[in-house]
Amino acid sequence: MADKNDLKSWIVEALAAMGGHAHWVAVARHIWATHEADLRESGDLFYTWQYQLGWAAQVLRDEGRIDKPGRGNWTLRDPLAGGQEPAKGA
Question: How many of the other CB atoms lie within 10 Å of CB of 57?
Answer without folding.
Answer: 20
